[in-house]
Amino acid sequence: MTGLRAILFDFGGTLDGAGRSWADRFVEAYDAHRLAVPPERLRAATSHGTRQSYRNPAVRGFDLQETVAFHVACQFAYLGIEHGPAAEAVVRTFVAGSVAALDESRAVLARLGRRFRLGVVSNFYGNLERILSGTGIAPLLELTCDSALEGVSKPDPRIFTLAVERLTLRSEEVLFVGDSYEQDIVPARAAGLRTAWLVAREGAADESLADMRLGTLAELESLY
User: CA nearest 29: which of 15, 12, 46?
Assistant: First the structure.
């Protein structure tokens, strides 16, 4: 893949999840603490937490720990579970997983940054830059596009076009890396970017639209 000058990344599920979405990781966290919630019911609760996080302006001032705690509180309220030690345990497990993944991502980005311009384009709650600063990733980035601040969100291709325009590059000179085929790969490709699909789970469909399929972000280090 020649001619690349910049690499843009999704955040949730990509930089902080190694290819595993927040919904999947919440299922794992609940299972780890023996909270018997049917997966589909929990996914509905996770979607509720996401909607509430977008609607509450206070979230814009939250760090990672506070964001996840708010999300879990909304989930527990939706599920009718008392918010107490169980919620705190889910938050600890989820945040620990995010911190570990972000540590690995930061190391990969530091190496990629020697050869490529870097950025993040993500659907988030207005506090993405604060979280990236808190994890030490922000200094490695040239731009951050947070959907809540930009007024446009994936899967609208315009958020990718906006990022490319800010880099003053041609879209074919930019690679976008994301874990969601529908939210990341399809719209980024529609905007003319090259794409890399980060897939952690076994047995995921082999979609031909992505230019690359990754098992880990470290595989990007083979690009030139």
Answer: 46
Type of residue at 37: V
Assess whether 86 and 167 both reside in one domain: no
Residues 62 and 218: their CA atoms lie apart, in Å, by: 29
- The pair of three-digit structure tokens given for residue 204, joined into one six-digit string: 């995921």
Domain ends where: 57, 72, 97?
97
Give the H/E segment covering residue 119.
Answer: strand 117-122
**Within-domain flag for 39:** yes
pLDDT in tens, 157-207: 999 999 999 999 999 999 999 999 999 999 999 999 999 999 976 545 555
Q: What are the φ and ψ backbone dihedral angles of 39, each rounded to 5 degrees?
A: -50, -40
Q: Decide which of 69, 97, 125 is a domain's last residue.
A: 97
Number of domains in the chain: 2
Per the listing, tokens 């200094």 go with 139
Q: What would you report as the CA-atom Rg of the chain, rounded to the nearest whole angstrom?
A: 17
Q: Kindly give, in sequence order, each residue whose CB lies less than 8 Å from that of residue 65, ignoring residues fewer than 6 positions away.
A: 91, 95
Cα distances (Å, whole numbers) of residue 186 to 89, 165, 189, 204, 209? 36, 19, 5, 16, 7
Q: Facing residues of 177 across strands?
A: 9, 196
d(CA 213, CA 138): 25
pLDDT of residue 167: 97
